[in-house]
Amino acid sequence: MDTLKVAVITGGSQGIGAGLVEAYRELGYAVVANSRSIGASDDDLVRTVSGDISDPTVADAVIRTAIDAFGRVDTLVNNAGIFIAKPFLDYTQDDYDTALRVNLGGFFHVTQKAVAQMAEQGAGHVVNVTTTLVENANSNVPSALASLTKGGTAAVVKSLAIEYAARGIRFNAVSPGIIKTPLHAEETHATYAGLHPVGRMGTIDDVVRGVVYLEQAPFVTGEFLHVDGGQSAGY
């Protein structure tokens, strides 16, 4: 009998995260999903852990739940994050503290704990959901704090991919454009669509397909997969 694979997904209660939970279940994975406000699931192979993933005790509880319930961690998708778009001089101390806590702390603690388990297993996969603005800045969307923090979770992919390549653990990133989620009001959609060469915003399914591709591509590690409607190619 095949071993049941297990995916941990942060920011898993809505939008891209909820789409990822559904996709991994369709792939046959058990899932542990986390967000600050996530409720219980009626699926026996989905466990939920509510709380702020930047809190080390929550991160520990998430990975412990995966191990206690299903015995392993095969994939971690670091999807939780915050995006604060402001001119650089308008950022506040609170903006700075929040972005570092959520985007960097929310990656660091849970990834350390997941990778420790993956190293024992001799295999694993970590995917960071970043933003294409890290590499392709746009004066229409000033977002230095996103570049500072999500840029860190993008850069660390190559570092960790090399550090753990010989131990069977892959690290990749999906770099989305602007995705049509409840975070973006309907009246902004036309403007945001125009920021992509293909002339539309991305969908949750677009991002999910990117993560699933990386999941099913065992020779791919240290990769930034752009799901950005051509923004990374130029404009």
UniProtKB/TrEMBL annotation:
Listed GO MF terms: oxidoreductase activity, acting on the CH-OH group of donors, NAD or NADP as acceptor
Family per record: Belongs to the short-chain dehydrogenases/reductases (SDR) family.
UniProt-listed SUPFAM superfamilies: NAD(P)-binding Rossmann-fold domains
Protein name: NAD(P)-dependent dehydrogenase (Short-subunit alcohol dehydrogenase family)
Organism: Diaminobutyricimonas aerilata
Pfam assignment, any one: adh_short_C2
Gene Ontology terms: biological process: fatty acid elongation
